[in-house]
């Protein structure tokens, strides 16, 4: 059995097709999934999807760094209310994104505010770090010591594995590990301890090989898991068992 630790089931490419998406996931052995909030709207939608599928779909409440330019006090207060009232399994995705042009100071302020929210609610955090590895590491080591941290779609390569491991992070690996040009991701996976590995799709984005270019969905986490098992030199069953247990412990599911 596999867990897709990070998907966006509220996305319009998936939501209209919800029952078939869940059915196909089951056929691929993906029994559990965590649907991720990115702002006040997608977080509310994620909570609703989780309520429709108790014990099967779980949700988080988040404030995505590339959306910060539109976050005012009322949006952030609404995200905090959803975090208190909808029983999420984590706060996230939150973090830093220097690929998109949104204001970096505001990204930092929102990131730190969401870490405080998670700490206050004793919830783990799911981190988005795109082209911002040094600053993400600095803020986490400064503000999130002792918290449970998952690096979503880990992309900082082998060079950062030791530092994030020391912080206690889990590393969630997505479709790029299967890409022809994904050698850096495979080198990172080779270095990550088994007890820190988790698998995700980030669907509908980042579709693994050989479906790259098509819509991604939770079923395809199996393709990513197969590639990781190959890199680690273990069979798929063992990889599934370990990553599922790691994700269960992290989200308490
Ligand atoms: Zn995501």
Features:
10 helices; alpha/beta; binds zinc ion; 253 residues; TIM Barrel; 5-stranded parallel beta sheet
Structural account:
The chain is α/β, with parallel strands linked by helices. It has a 5-stranded parallel sheet. Helix 9 packs across helix 10. The structure holds zinc ion. The site of zinc ion has 5 residues, from loops.
| Main pleated-sheet profile | 5 strands, parallel
Order of helices and strands: EHHEHEHEHEHEHEHEHH
User: What's the total count of β strands?
Assistant: 8
* Distinct bound molecules: zinc ion
Rg over alpha carbons: 17 Å
Order of adjacent strands in the largest pleated sheet: 4-5-6-7-8
The H-level CATH homologous superfamily, spelled out, is Metal-dependent hydrolases
CATH architecture: Alpha-Beta Barrel
Class per helix and strand makeup? alpha/beta
Question: Secondary-structure map with pairings?
Answer:
Blueprint: E1 2-7, H1 12-15, H2 18-27, E2 30-35, H3 40-52, E3 57-59, H4 73-85, E4 91-97, H5 104-120, E5 125-130, H6 133-143, E6 149-151, H7 161-166, E7 170-173, H8 183-191, E8 197-199, H9 221-232, H10 236-251
Helix pairs in contact: 9-10
Zinc ion binds at residues 6, 8, 36, 93, 202.
Structure described in brief:
The protein is an alpha/beta fold. It is built from ten helices and eight strands.
């Amino acid at each position: 059995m596999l867990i897709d630790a990070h998907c966006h089931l509220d996305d319009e490419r998936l939501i209209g097709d919800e029952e078939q998406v869940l059915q196909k996931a089951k056929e691929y052995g993906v029994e559990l999934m965590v649907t991720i909030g990115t702002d006040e709207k997608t977080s509310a939608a994620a909570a609703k999807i989780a309520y429709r599928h108790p014990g099967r779909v779980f949700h988080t409440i988040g404030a995505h760094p590339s959306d910060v330019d539109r976050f005012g006090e009322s949006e952030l207060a609404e995200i905090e209310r959803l975090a208190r009232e909808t029983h999420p399994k984590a706060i996230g995705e939150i973090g830093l994104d220097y690929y998109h042009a949104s204001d970096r100071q505001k990204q930092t302020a929102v990131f730190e505010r969401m870490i405080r929210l998670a700490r206050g609610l004793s919830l783990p955090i799911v981190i988005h770090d795109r082209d911002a590895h040094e600053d993400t590491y600095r803020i986490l080591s400064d503000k999130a010591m002792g918290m449970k941290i998952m690096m979503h779609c880990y992309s900082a390569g082998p060079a950062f594995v030791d530092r994030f491991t020391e912080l206690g992070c889990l590393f969630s690996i997505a479709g790029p590990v299967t890409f022809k040009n994904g050698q850096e991701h495979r080198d990172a996976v080779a270095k990550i301890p088994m007890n820190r590995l988790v698998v995700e799709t980030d669907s509908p984005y980042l579709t693994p090989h050989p479906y790259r270019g098509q819509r991604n969905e939770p079923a395809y986490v199996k393709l990513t898991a197969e590639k990781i098992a190959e890199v680690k030199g273990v069979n798929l069953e063992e990889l599934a068992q370990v990553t599922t247990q790691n994700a269960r412990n992290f989200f308490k599911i």
